[in-house]
Amino acid sequence: MRSDDFPFVGSAERQALFGAKGWAALVAFVLAVMVVVPVAFVFVPAGSPFHLSAYFVTLVGKIMCYCIVAVAMNLIWGYTGILSLGHGLFFALGGYAFGMYLMRMIGREGQYQSDLPDFMVFLDWKAYPWYWSFTDHFWYSAMMVVLAPGLLAFVFGFFAFRSRIKGVYFSIITQALTYAFMLLFFRNDTGFGGNNGFTDFKRILGFRIAEPGTRAALFAITGIYLAATIVLSRGIIRSKLGRVLTAIRDSESRLMFSGYNPLWYKLFIWTLSAVMCGIAGALYVPQVGIINPSEMSPANSIEIAIWVAVGGRGTILGPVIGAALVNGAKSFFTQAYPEYWLFFLGLLFILVTLFLPKGVAGIASMGRLRAPARDRAAVAREEGEKT
Amino acid sequence: MSRLPSMSPAEGFGATIGRVVGQGVDVSHGPILYLEDITVSFDGFKALNKLTLTVDAGELRCVIGPNGAGKTTMMDVITGKTQPDAGSAFFGQTIDLTRLSEAQIAQAGIGRKFQKPTVFENHTVFENLELAMKTDKRVWASVRARLSSEELDRIAQTLDQIQLTRDAARPAGVLSHGQKQWLEIGMLLMQEPKLLLLDEPVAGMTDEETERTAELFTTLAGKHSVVVVEHDMEFIGRIANQVTVLHEGSVLAEGSMDKIKNDERVIEVYLGR
Questions:
Q1: Which domain holds residue B246?
Q2: Closest chain A residue to B172 measured between Cα atoms?
Q3: Structural domain tally of chain B?
Q4: Within a domain: residue B2?
Q5: Could A246 and B122 be called an inter-chain contact, meaning their C-beta atoms sit closer than 8 Å?
Q6: Which of A161, A170, B11, B252 has minimal CB crowding within 10 Å?
Q7: At residue B4, does pLDDT exceed 90?
Q8: ipTM (interface predicted TM)
């Protein structure tokens, strides 16, 4: 009995992350967001049929941010089995952290021509509160985009996972957490603009945000980051770490009695997922032009779970498809039939749960149901050849 | 330190012993497991009542007893799932089990098979064994983990022993009940435990599977210490040298199968029914 008897081991350990087609699709996608869209948006004249409108670029950029959130959610829910109903909070915290920088960059171009943001002038504040220190430095703010959601997730996750809070109880406290933060951010004296949040951004790193070139760059960065999160989550799932995570989902006690401490695994993937969301939030804010506490509303976080469920939990591309599909439909419906959008969303969720338990991505794998039998036949053939 | 006989890899299961990471278990005084005056109560009901039990290194011990006698609770205490209200539990001379988590106890060398076969159903048989294998089980180690050819060989060897080589690439969820039981035993062996706790290992097995399991366990004894909780008296008669009878949370009788069979009190509470 030799280890060469396991041709399939290569599939888990040694093979490339993606097949040739997968890499080709990924490269095509990156080229599209880096070259095709920016050229069609910035350089093709408005009258041309190949011109892309600012509306389209902003919409797709926004949806790509949501796709990133769905990829992050899938890591913690789809693969590790921990349903977070508070991921909107991490997204919003990243957005706020970067929004602070954008507010500082308005300078004296605001309504009141003050050094302070308009909402502070309105509150009759004379100086920035201490926690606004250094936020006029890009790299400090970029660091806070990672640290704010990351630290909150780490501390919250440590206590929740150490206390072995699981399942629906965990979901409920994440929901309460995002709700509590929403109430906090709604308050004017919290110093984050109250219910209006941050808006009217002017510049980013000296470039005017309204310029097509800046928008195209933000769009390209978002697309590249989306591709990177897909590659990263694929890498995680293909590694032994990924197999431990799915083992937590399927049988946590077996895993503990096999000598693994699930606490650190959960904490790792939970914090990573939160940071991924935070960065997505930071890319979202300059493109959409506003961040306010409604991003932290419990309904927003629930919607994230719906994207992942619709697309297909525990599949690499499913959540991306789900987020794009639901948000694409949302932008269509809220314009064409605004009063029916929520009915449609509810119907979609029911239909997917009933008929596509593995989501849209499950349709693709339906034809592959007999794959395990084939594997077995291959192994059996190998055996036969040797004897 | 260890008085467990060292075996060459050629001797099959012996290959799973001898590689000790970190602090090994000290069995210099003979016993590998000491339970003393262990008491566990659930809402006033004493699941274990001053239970005292010693298992020697290399021994194969069977534990029997009627439902509710405290057999599974005893396993829970040993593996860290349940904290005893009183009493002490030691693994070898030095390792205090009441102060360790489930994962630490598993790493120290105690493997547990559940009553209901518990395997990772969505992972392949191969991956189940890979996950169970004795190695650094911290997060960063898992990020970087690559199977070496020795590790692949060990998995191959275990697959052979549990007769699942042909099913290595299949998800564990599609295996038969008996095969799952064997896979779980294989996972325990990959952990290289010093002490194996087996909760009803032949429940739901066919006669032939039971036979094979009995053979497997007798080869295990001597190299590992094994504690088997079982209802199947015929099976126990075949494998056990020492039998402990639990009743209402404490030890009712202890000794050879013949002695137990003729014990008046045992007949009264258990065998006679």
A1: 9-271
A2: A372
A3: 1
A4: no
A5: yes
A6: B11
A7: no
A8: 0.85
